[in-house]
Predict the 3D structure of the following.
Amino acid sequence: MIVSTKGRYALRVMVSLAQRPPGEYVPLKEIAEAEGISQKYLEAIMAILSKAGLVEAVHGKGGGYRLNRPPEGYTVGGILKLTEGSLAPVSCTSEGPAACSRTDCCAALPMWEKLDRLIDDFFESITIQDLLTDGVREKAGRDAKSRE
């Protein structure tokens, strides 16, 4: 699984918006400059986030984008699934046309399904707030200790 620039940039933008005072609208141009993302590419990402209700957009003077909920209300998994479509490590664990026709007889399928669940559980356990507070390292440390 490789997360595309769209997914990585969407996370950066969500973190950037979360660092602003609640309710503050940030112009697209300002976000693009601060994050080093082309304004045209950022427009496409913001359209996806806005359509899904993750951010609110206001057009015109004083407008821009803001989060619709507190940073702890967004998971990395939710954002990546929205922008990437799937986080499946292999096509045989995805649904739809890419799904494998050999699922009934594949000895490796349970392993791939377990990896798929691990990836999903990992990303769903991290919020934008965790990224702001470096809570990811704290969670990783607790998880490692619990496995010992």
